[in-house]
Each structure stands twice: as C-alpha cells, then as structure tokens.
Design brief:
Blueprint lengths: L2 H18 L8 E4 L33 H9 L3 H12 L10 H4 L1 H29 L2 E6 L4 E6 L8 E5 L7 E7 L5 E5 L1 H4 L4 E5 L19 E5 L9 E5 L5 E5 L3 E2 L4 E3 L3 E8 L5 H4 L10 H33 L19 H15 L8 H17 L14 E2 L13 E4 L6 E12 L2 E3 L2 H9 L48 H4 L5 H7 L5 H7 L6 H13 L4 E2 L4 H10 L3 H9 L2 H23 L6 H8 L4 H5 L9 E2 L3 H12 L3 E6 L2 E5 L5 E10 L7 E7 L6 E7 L1 H4 L9 H19 L3 E10 L1 H15 L5 H12 L4 E12 L3 H10 L3 E5 L4 H10 L8 E5 L6 H15 L9 E3 L2 E3 L8 E6 H9 L3 H9 L3 E5 L3 H15 L3 E5 L5 H6 L2 E5 L6 H4 L3 E3 L4 H39 L12 H11 L2 H9 L5 H6 L5 H4 L6 H26 L6 H23 L5 H24 L12 H6 L2 H27 L4 H9 L3 H13 ...
Parallel strand pairs: 15-27, 15-33, 27-32, 28-31, 28-36, 31-32, 33-34, 34-35
Antiparallel strand pairs: 1-8, 2-3, 2-4, 4-13, 5-11, 5-13, 6-7, 6-12, 8-9, 9-10, 14-35, 16-17, 16-26, 18-19, 20-21, 21-22, 22-23, 23-24, 24-25, 25-26, 29-30
Helix pairs in contact: 2-5, 8-9, 8-34, 10-34, 10-36, 15-21, 23-27, 23-46, 24-25, 26-34, 28-30, 34-36, 34-39, 34-40, 35-41, 36-41, 39-40, 39-43, 40-43, 46-47
Keywords: ATP-binding, Endoplasmic reticulum, Magnesium, Membrane, Metal-binding, Nucleotide-binding, Translocase, Transmembrane, Transmembrane helix
Subcellular location: Endoplasmic reticulum membrane; Membrane
EC number: 7.6.2.1
C-alpha cells in the first residue's frame, strides 16, 4: 500500500474508535503508541490526542477573566460580602446614612489592593510559564530522519525526545536508549525532591542496540502504563510487542520531568506523561494552607460582633419608633415619600434598623483579616532571618512553607518526633561487626568516635587526635582514603551523604588479618559451593560492597571496562596473584608487623603511643600503598547513609566497589584482583520486608548467589532451619551480639546469602518476569516473588552502625519538657536501640519508672488495665506551679513523686487499635512524661498523631526527616521537616523546615511565644478599637432621636480606620517583644501561657469589650458635658470626640507595647501627625462637601480654642486611667510569670543570668536539665560506652576491651543511676 493509503486507513480507524468511546475519557490504564506514523495529521486525528500536551499554565487568570474571577474569589470571604451588601444598602434612599458613593470607598480600597497583589503574583507565574514553555528540546521527526530542535510546549505524548548531559528533562519519558554501553542514564532529582545524589535509570529491557544507535521510526510496540499519579516512587506498565511478547518496566526506566541528566552523553525515549500530567506538576501544589487555632477563634468572635451589632441596631430601631410615638402629630422634620405619603412609625423603625446597620458597620473589622495577613508575613520575615536558625555548614536557613499558622507555634502541647536523622545526625559510622559468630569491636574506630574530635576536612586531623590506625599505611586495606571529587563535575559534591567521620574507617586488626590472607581465599571459593571458613568472611564483605544501590562516579568507568577485559577469567585472577610476588611478600611482611603490633596493643589496650605508631607506619613503602590505592579517586553516592557506611567499611578492608551497572557490579579485592559480578536481579528494600537482596552470578564459581541484608527480625526467621548445630550456634552468638549492639544504641543489620541452582533460578525468573509485566496488583506480585526467593538463608554476620545524637538534643528535649510539652518518639528501630537513644537524649531519665508494652495477644486490654493500676498506685498529686518573687527570680513549687515513661511496640499498637483500646492507651500516656513507640510503620505514626490530636483536643507538632515521616507530618497541626541526609520528601510535605533538631527550641519557645502573643494582642486590640469608635456614634443616637445621624464627617470616619489607626497595630503585631529571647530560653515555663491561650480567652475578649464601652462613654460624655448649652454646630461638637478617640486608641496601644523601638515611635507619632494634617487640609478645602452642615475651617477653629486641648487631655486620662492602674498593679503586686520575667529583662545580663541560675538551682534534682549538671555529650558517650563494654565483657570475657579512665571517673561521680523498668 502507498503512504497516502496508509494514512487514510489510519484516519478511518481512528474515526471508528472515536465513535466507540469518548476521546477525552481515559481508562484505568493508559494506552499509547508512537506519533511518528501520524506526524502529518491534524491534532484531532492524532492517536494520543486525549492526553494533555506539554504546555504549562499555572496562572489563574487571563486579561479578560481577571476582574470577574478575582472578584468571585474575593467574595468567598464573608467579610467582603458583608461590606458590599452594606454599601449597596446605602444606595437605597430611605435607609442610607451617608453619601452612597462614599460608603463604597473602604471595601473598594480593600478589593483593589487585594486585586493588585493577585495580579502581580499571576503575572510572575505567567512569565515563569512562558520561559519554561519556550525552553528548547530535541524531538524526533520522521521527515528529517533525525532529532530536531523544538520548544517544550510542542512535546506530545507519544513523541520521541532526546536529552543530553546537563539538560533538564522536558516531560516524563520512558527510557529506550542511552549512550552509556551499560544502558544507564544518571539523573539528578534535586528539582523534585531536593536530593543531589545521582540516581541510575536504565533502558527498558531488550532495547539495547548492539551498535549503540537508536531508530525511533522502527518502534512498533504499544505501551500500557498506569494513569498519571503524584507518587514519585511508583510507575508500572509493560510494552506489548508485535510478537505479543510483554516486557515490563517500572520507575527505574522513567526519566521524570524537571530532573537533570548527569554523566551521560545522551539519552532518548518516548513521552508517556506531558504537561500537567507529569509527576512533577502533580506534586506542585504550592504553599500549604491551614487554619490556625487563633483564626478559628477570631471567626467566632466576629460572629459575636455581628450579634452585638444586631442588638445595637435593634435598640436604635426601637428607640426611633418610641421617639416618633411621643409626638401627637407627624413631626415637621419627617419628610413624606415620593407620593406625598407619610410612613408610619413602625415602618420607619424598621427602615431605621438598616440605617443603623450602615452607620455602625465599622463594628465588624473590615481590615482585620488583611492586617493579620500582613503581620504573618512580617513574622515569617523575622523568623527566616534569625541568625540562630541559620546553618552555616549547609548554607541554609529555616523555611516557612505555610504562611498562616505562625501563631500555632506558641500553643504546642505534644511533639511527635522521628529518631533517625531527627534526633540523630543520620551520619552512619561503622562501629562493630560480627562475622561467623565472632565479634570484632573495631576499637580504633570506636575510640575516635568517643573522643568527639572529628576532622573538619578530609585528610586532616585535629592536634592530638588519636590515630587508631597508625600502624596501617595510607592506601592499604586498613584505611579508606576519600579522594577529592573531580573538578569537572558541575553538580554538588558527590559525597552527599558521606563525611570524613563516615568514610575514615579504622578496621579491626584481627579481621583485617583474615581478609588479607590470600592463600586460601580463591581456592576456597573454587572448592566449595557454600560459605565455609575464609570464604564466609569474603562473602560477608562482598555482600557489604554489592548489596546496595550506591552509584559510583563515572570518572572510573573507562578504566573499569579495560580491567574487565584483561581480568575477566579465573586464570587471569590467579595469574595476577602470581605476577606480584614481591608485593605479596611485602604484604605478608606487613601483616606480620600488624600481628606483632596487635599483640603489643592488646597487652596495653588503653595506650596511645605515637612514637611506636609512627615507627610502624614507616615500614610501609609507597609502592606497597600503590597496590591497593585508588589513583583516580572513587566517589560514592548513596540514597541512604547506611549503605554508604557499609560500602566504606568494605572498602576499608580492601573490598572496593569500582563500578555499578544495571547488569554488572565490579569489586576489587584486597590483593588487587578485580571481580565482575553479573547482576541478575535486585530486590529493593521496602518497609514490609525490611530487607533488600541482590541476585548475582559469581564470576568464579558461576553459581547464582543471593546476598541479602536487612533487619534482624526479618533475616533471622528466614535462616535455613535444617542446618547443622554449628550454624545454629553461630546464629545464636550473632543474635546475642545484635542484642548488645542494640543495647548500646547501634543500628543493626544482618547479612546473609543463599546459593540457587540454575533450574531454581530459571523457574523463579520466569515468574518474576510475569509479575513485572502486569499492572494490576503488580506490587503484591513482586512482593510474593521476593518473599519466595528470600528463604533458607545462610547467615554471614551482622553489623553495628552508630548514628550519633545531634548537638544539644538532650538540652532541647529538657527545655521542651519544662515548657509543658510532651515529647513522643516514633521510630521503626528495634526496642533496645530506641530505648538506649531515649536515655541518651534524656527522653527518659535514669530515675524514671519505664513501662514496656510488648504483646500481640488478645490480653492487651488486661495488660493495659494492670499497667494503669500500677501507675495510679504511684501517681502523685498533680503539679502546681506558683511563682514567687525571690531576689527578682521566678521560683517553682512542685509536688514530688515518681515519673513514668512508656515504651510500646508496633505490634502492640496494632492490637490497641484493633481492640478499640485507644482511650486506655491515652489515659496511660497522659500519666507518662514521655512515650517511645518502637517498630512502628509510617501509617501507625500518623494514626498515633491523629489519635492524640482528635481525642485530647490539643495542638500537635510532628517532626521528621524522611519519606516515612510524611504521613505523620501532614497529620499534625504543624509539620516540621528536617533537611538532612534522607532527601527532601519530609521538607516538601512540611509547614516549616529546619536543619537541626536544636532549632526547634528557639522556634517554639521564642518565635512561637512572640508570634502568638503579638497576634493575639493585636486581634483583641482590633476588636476593642472598632467597638470603642462605633460606640461614639451609638451614644449620640440617644441625643438625636435615633435618627441615624453622625456627628463626625463621614470622610474622617472612613480615614480613621483606613489610615489613622491601621499601621500602629500592624507594627505592634510584627515587632513587639514582651520578653527577651534570652529570658524565654532560660525560663521555658513561660511557654505555658501560650498553651493555655492566656492572651486570647473568651473572658479576655469580653473584658476588652467592657473596657471599650467604658472608654467610649468617657470619650463621648466629657466633650458632651463640656459643650452642653453652647451653640456649636454638629461637626464642631464631633471633632473633639474624634480627636480624643484617636489619642485614647493610640495611647491604649502604647500601654500594651512592651518594647519600644524607633519604628514604634515613628508610626505612633506619624499617625497623629497624619490625622491633624489631613483634618486641617480637609477643613480648609471642603467648603460645601456635606450640606447643610459643612466641616469648613472647623479643625482650625478648634485648634485655636484652649478648651479643645483641655478636653483632649482630661478625656484621654480619664478613659485610660483604669487600664493603666490595672497594669501598674499587675506589675507591682501580681505574681504572673510573664511580669516576673519582664522584671528580669530590666536587669543587666549578668544579674539576669544569675537570677535564672538561682531559680533553676532550687528545682527538683530530677528536673534539672542535663547541661546544668554536666556536659551532655560527655555523659551520653560515657554512659553508652561503659554500658556497652561492660555488657560485652560479660558476654565475651576472653576478648580485650577499651578501658576509658575518663568514663570510669564520670560514673564514679554518681551520674550513672539505676534504671527502673517494668516489662509487661
């Protein structure tokens, strides 16, 4: 058939498909084909026309739709609708109170300002969209037979797109071609999740062209994939080839829009999602919006103001009716209607109700919501620019992603925290390992951690830092060298997760001797098909090196490929040993030196003799170091710090990961030989299996070997049950080592392997391929295949990795507890590890009675009842705090009694939720100072947060750093993400983002207190200001027959709230500081004022309303009595009242301001000057503005009259005298903690610090913060090391252990207390 006939047939088939189904509706599965055969057709005939194009439009409006759409959005606010209705009501002649056009000014100003802000934001979005849509990209053209340059907006689903190195990917592309011979494309996903480490993507299986060319016109497969979703970690589908063969693909084959291609010359593929259907755009939700607790209260009080307005208007309407009824005839001042008929008094009273609504409309604060938004923007500005919350190491500061909940930071009662990466640094240090039941303590590496003196830069050591590996030369397997990253790379440092503290691993000498014994190493592998003797040690380190997803820098790839060609067979490997006899002999001699020095070192385990180490180091030549050194430098980029730590540990023993490709991983052995393992499959880690596996073909034995690593709970139960007693003993010893590691706070992993027969692997691979080719239930099927393979494992060993606490974590938790905040830690770690960290970070104190709930039986309810009974038996009376003025300090008084802690495991939580025992758990938790939840899943974390938030009706905060914390962060009232080592998923889902847990202390105790107190006082002041001013008009109605007349010119009335009194409260809400930051940090108890909402209570609101009524009475009747009986006109009578109310309102705010700055003075004085300038100009030029009474020259005449000044002074003093007297009495007599704290602020810095120290010294010893007794880190390290070593000494007395005199001295001073625990 000719080409036109093919096109006609394609058009006809598409028309028939269009009749059969709706073209715009997508099925559950997306089906797409190549666009190349239909390149010349119009869009309506394109096969993938129903899918979105790649043009991005994030703007809300167009030129024509801006006004109607923006008004529609603004009228979603009740306040705007209310004021528009009032303004429209003023156009009705029979009820209007002002000039109709004037009544529109306030609401028009608010709407115009908001519209200008929205228009500017939308214009910026338009510019960004335009720039993005016009970025260049390469799209394949059938006419040109090549890739041609087009814009991003021209990309369609089904197009073939090529991207080159350092180019941003324009759409979600299924990878079909890569210039890399291994079919790999490296991408950087920093624009999506903030992670700068490289990730590997590989071409779809079976699409690697032998000659490296890619010809899209020959692509004839049909692609089936899932519908667009915002899950960055999930993508599934399959290719349906013409021969009906299905090839599955997943997320490892997808290039995501917004990512950057790195270290790959070019890559190409077919577009599966474009534009707004890409995962990047589906995750682009912008700033989060939440309603704060204070905002909800404000909405309630606005309703109270509406009710108050209704009552005042009803009084005015009834008063007008009664006043008209007092006249026997129709009064002469009541005009008839247009038909010359007079309205009855009842109907006139009804109309007067609406007139009063117009007159008193200012009672509802129209500018309150706008002022709140401006204040929150100002508060966020000061929070983000706080130098104490800036991290110099990462050059990052706090991020405020939610713009409207700053005041909630001052009302938190419960904090839910992750452990790893949140309380700890998530910088993993290899500390211990157990291989074949033998424990290797890595004394040198542990010693360097205990001293805390870590090198600041690579290759440098602080003076006096003990060199635990001084006997080993640089470049040998005994020390890993971390080279400088290549300067050719333009991306951030490839060692994204690794620092010298992690990469500088000092190996254990006994284990190093085993791994360097090359005589039997290869022979053992060739002779046996299972782990035995030395081969088990080799398999252990090989598993550490290859069972991961670590990416090796491409700087080494050319060299690695040449090595593989030269050393790809067993004969080459064996010959490589024989070809270097001199080096082998030198290696043996060096091992002999190591043995001799090790014997000396064991005889004097605590010594650090630099002369001996330097002399031993001199025995090693530069040539010897060259045999195992890394001349080109290796740069590892790991998605998890755990993986990086294990790879560097393997490298320290000479098992160096050289290269990784989708189908091959290359490792260099300690003697320099290179092994290339064929990767048959990788079973990625997931939270259900809690392990990962790699299936490889051994290059020597040619066996199919599975290397597995994971949690001990997941590996131990999968071991081969039919093994000899020796294997059972090894497993038992390893389990004891694991328990001791966990007790010392180390993160534990088990390493295992399994050898498969060829037939067994082929059968499993066929099932696995079928599972990969499905879309429905794909995850479940893949999970089943992985579980089926990971059985009957052979245990190789276990590792213990230290994750150090972050700086100041114990002090931060102690301060938060003093502030009345309960801290819960929710972690997936095992019980022993989590409990040890809990004591180290002072979540639990040594004197606490800790209850451990660990059961999965149906007796969970009875266990909870027994525990509750035990707690009630010990429960002391509730704490009571009283603040007394003793030498100017705040002194607490609290009852004595036992304190409780609770440890609950994930399986017990599951039983609690299944048996509906949540309330009993909450009752038990409320008696505990802290709660630790171990072995919990991400869903359980969010369920716990939701339970506490909803049942206890408290403000909650969740903080975490990883993707497993996202659910918890989004469930809490405030979510905080830590931008650490686990990527940016938590940060992207959070309301605030910080870099260290210690920043939480100042964020809550200082900024939280300030934001809440400022905003609460400002809102209360706003209500007071409006009620006070409106009441002046209300009192006047009693003397004008309730006629709705105003004694103040309506222009000045409008300007009063819009300009004269609007800016001072905004500055008050942004900049006022009732207490200094130093005092708030020194006295965390002051935070409780925000928890109890003491600044904004219902009683406070009504007291302020009464004060406003009183001040309005004074401001009205003193001028009224002054001018009573005179012949002044109405505006001359109202001008003093307006002026007096301005002074009273501003001075009322001045009494509340606690910290005066030049800005406060400027706005206060500026408001007064602005009032007089505007009033004088208005009175001078307004000759006939409001007939028959006009304000011409009234202000000038008043300012020339001394009575005017006397009235202003007397009235203001009398109006503010009660409030001033109350504030004086509160500062003199009251025992409020805030007043006492402000007294401390008036002292000098030294005197204040001394008073705070005196106050803390009188507290209960159990409550004294750790940093006031001894250095936190010193105690934590000493406790951990002593407890750990003593445990291991009891378990394995035949081994040598560290003797730390400093540790013993620390414990002799009484810091190590008894631990009271009860396990249920």
């Amino acid at each position: 058939a000719t080409e036109p006939e093919k096109n006609n047939y394609a058009i006809w088939s598409l028309i028939k498909q269009g009749w059969r189904r709706k073209p715009e509706q997508e099925d559950k599965v997306r089906r797409l084909i190549s666009n190349l055969p239909y390149e010349d057709l119009r869009r309506k005939y394109q096969p993938n026309r129903q899918y979105a194009n790649n043009s991005i439009k994030t703007t809300k409006y167009t030129v024509w739709s801006f006004i109607p759409m923006n008004l529609f959005e603004q009228f979603h606010r009740f306040a705007n609708v209310y004021f528009v209705v009032i303004a429209m009501l003023n156009f009705v002649p029979i009820v209007n109170a002002f000039e109709p056009g004037v009544a529109l000014i306030p609401i028009c100003v608010i709407l115009i300002l908001t519209a200008i802000k929205d228009a500017w934001e939308d214009f910026r979005r338009y510019q960004a969209d335009k720039q993005l849509n016009n970025m260049p990209c390469s799209i394949y053209s059938r006419k040109e037979k090549d890739f041609v340059s087009k814009c991003w907006k021209d990309v369609r689903v089904g197009d073939f797109v090529k991207v080159v190195c350092n180019e941003v990917i324009p759409a979600d592309i299924l990878l079909l071609h890569s210039s890399d011979p291994n079919g790999v494309c490296h991408i950087e996903t920093a624009n999506l999740d903030g992670e700068t480490n490289l990730k590997q993507r590989q071409i779809v299986r079976g699409f690697a062209a032998p000659d490296g060319s890619f010809q899209p016109e020959y692509f004839s497969s049909i692609i089936y994939c899932e519908k667009p979703s915002n899950n960055l970690n999930r993508f599934k589908g399959y290719l349906d080839k013409p021969d009906k063969k299905k090839i599955g693909f997943g997320k490892e084959n997808l290039l995501l829009r917004g990512c950057t291609v790195r270290n790959t010359d070019e890559a190409a593929g077919i577009v599966v999602y474009a534009g707004h259907e890409t995962k990047a755009m589906l995750n682009n939700k912008g700033p989060r919006y939440k309603r704060s607790k204070l905002e909800r209260k404000v909405n309630t009080d606005v309703l109270f103001c509406v009710a108050l307005l209704f009552i005042m208007c009803l009084i005015g309407a009834l008063g007008y009716f009664i006043w008209l009824e007092t006249f026997p005839d129709i009064p002469p001042f009541v005009p008839p209607d247009s038909n010359n008929n007079y309205i009855s008094p009842a109907l006139s009273g009804f109309y007067m109700f609406f007139t009063m609504v117009i007159l008193l409309q200012v009672l509802i604060p129209i500018s309150l919501y706008v002022s709140i938004e401006l204040i929150k923007v100002g508060q966020i500005f000061f929070i983000t620019n706080d130098i104490d919350l800036y991290d110099e190491e990462t050059d990052s500061r706090i991020q405020c992603r939610a713009l409207n909940i700053t005041e909630d930071l001052g009302q938190i009662k419960y904090i839910f925290s992750d452990k790893t990466g949140t309380l700890t640094e998530n910088k993993m240090v290899f500390r211990r390992c157990s291989v074949m039941g033998i424990e290797y303590c890595h004394r040198e590496n542990a010693g360097s951690q205990r001293t805390g003196a870590y090198p600041a830069k690579q290759g440098t050591r602080p003076k006096g830092h003990p060199r635990g590996d001084a006997s080993l030369p640089q470049g040998t397997p005994g020390r890993t060298q971390t080279p400088d990253p290549p300067h050719s790379r333009t991306q951030p440092s490839p060692l994204h997760h690794s620092t010298p503290i992690e990469t500088d691993v000092a190996p254990d000498r006994r284990l190093l001797r085993v791994t360097c014994d090359e005589k039997t190493q290869i022979q053992e592998w060739c002779r046996v098909s299972h782990c035995n003797g030395s081969a088990s040690f080799m398999d252990f380190f090989l598993a550490l090196a290859i069972c991961n997803t670590v990416v090796v820098s491409t700087a080494m790839l050319p060299r690695q490929r040449s090595l593989l060609k030269r050393m790809g067979s067993l004969s080459h490997i064996v010959n490589s040993f024989q070809s270097i006899p001199e080096k082998s002999s030198k290696s043996r001699s060096s091992l002999k030196d190591v043995k001799e020095e090790e014997a000396e070192d064991y005889s004097d385990s605590g010594s650090n003799n630099p002369s001996r180490r330097n002399s031993s180091a001199s025995h090693h030549s530069e040539e010897e170091r060259g045999t195992v050194s890394d001349p080109n430098g290796l740069c590892y980029e790991a998605e998890s710090p755990d993986e990086a730590a294990l790879v560097y540990a393997a490298k320290a023993y000479g098992f160096t990961l050289l290269a990784r490709a989708p189908d091959r991983v290359t490792v260099r052995l300690p003697q320099g030989a290179v092994l290339s393992f064929e990767v048959l499959d990788t079973l990625a880690f997931d939270s259900t299996r809690k392990r990962m596996s790699v299936v490889v073909r051994h290059p020597i034995t040619r066996e199919v070997v599975i290397y597995t690593k994971g949690a001990d709970s997941a590996i131990m139960e999968l071991l081969d049950c039919h093994v000899q007693s020796e294997r059972k003993k090894i497993a038992s010893k390893t389990q004891r080592h694991l328990d001791l590691y966990a007790s010392a706070g180390l993160r534990t992993l088990c390493i295992a392997k399994k050898v498969l027969s060829e037939q067994a692997y082929d059968d499993w691979a066929s099932i696995r391929q079928e599972a990969e080719s499905t879309i429905d239930n794909r995850e479940e099927l893949l999970m089943e295949t992985a579980v089926h393979l990971e059985t009957n494992l052979t245990l190789l060993g276990a590792t213990g990795i230290e994750d150090r606490l972050q700086d100041d974590v114990p002090a931060t938790i102690a301060a938060l507890r003093e502030a009345g905040i309960q801290v819960w830690v929710l972690t997936g770690d095992k019980n022993e590890t989590a409990v040890n960290i809990a004591y180290s970070c002072r979540l639990f104190n040594q004197g606490d009675m800790v209850f451990t709930l660990n059961t999965d039986s149906r007796q969970c309810e009875s266990i909870l009842d027994c525990t509750l009974g035990e707690v009630r038996r010990y429960t002391a009376p509730s704490q009571s705090w009283s603040f007394q003025s003793i030498v100017g300090a705040v002194m607490p008084t609290e009852s004595t009694g036992p304190t409780f802690g609770l440890v609950i495991e994930g399986r017990t939580l599951s039983m609690v939720f299944e048996a509906h025992l949540q309330m009993k758990l909450l009752e038990l938790a409320r008696h505990c100072r802290s709660v630790l939840c171990c072995r919990v899943t991400p869903l359980q974390k969010s369920a716990v947060v939701k339970l506490v938030r909803n049942k206890l009706k408290v403000m909650t905060l969740s903080i975490g750093d990883g993707a497993n914390d996202v659910n918890m962060i989004q469930t809490a009232d405030i979510g905080i993400g830590i931008s650490g080592q686990e990527g940016m998923q938590a940060v992207m889902a959070s309301d605030f983002a910080i870099t260290h847990f210690k920043h939480l202390k100042k964020l809550l105790l200082v900024h939280g207190h300030w934001c809440y107190s400022r905003l609460a006082k400002m809102v209360i002041y706003f209500f007071y200001k409006n009620v006070m001013y409106v009441n002046l008009l209300f009192w006047y109605q009693f003397y004008c027959g309730f006629s709705g007349t105003a004694m103040i010119d309506y222009w000045l009335m409008i300007f009063f709230n819009l300009f004269f009194t609007s800016t001072p409260p905004i500055m008050f809400g942004i900049m006022d500081r009732d207490i200094s930051a130093e005092t708030l940090l020194g006295l965390p108890e002051l935070y409780k004022t925000g928890q109890n909402s003491e600044f904004y209570k219902r009683a406070t609101f009504w007291i302020v309303m009464l004060d406003a009524f009183y001040q309005s009475l004074v401001c009205f009747f003193i001028p009224y009595w002054t001018y009573q009986g005179s012949d002044i006109d109405i505006f001359t009578f109202g001008t003093p009242m307006n002026t007096v109310s301005l002074f009273t309102i501003l001075l009322h705010l001045a009494i509340e301001i606690k910290s005066w700055t030049a800005i406060h003075w400027g706005f206060m004085v500026g408001s007064v000057l602005l009032y007089f300038i505007v009033a004088l100009i208005f009175s001078a030029i307004c000759i006939n503005c409001n007939p028959p009474s006009n304000p011409y020259w009234i202000m000038e005449n008043q300012m020339a009259d001394p009575v005017f000044y006397l009235v202003c002074i007397i009235t203001t003093v009398v109006a503010l005298l009660p409030r001033y007297i109350i504030r004086v009495l509160q500062g003199t007599l009251a025992l409020s903690p805030l007043v006492q704290a402000r007294k401390l602020d008036r002292l000098s810095t030294e005197a204040r610090d001394q008073q705070i120290k005196n106050w803390k010294s009188q507290r209960s010893p159990s409550e004294v913060p750790t940093n006031l007794v001894s250095p936190v880190d010193s105690f934590s390290n000493s406790f951990e090391q002593s407890f750990y070593n003593s445990s291991l000494e009891r378990e394995m007395p035949d081994m040598q252990w560290d003797s730390n005199e400093e540790t013993q001295n620390t414990f002799s001073k009484g810091h190590r207390r008894s631990i009271s625990t009860m396990t249920v």
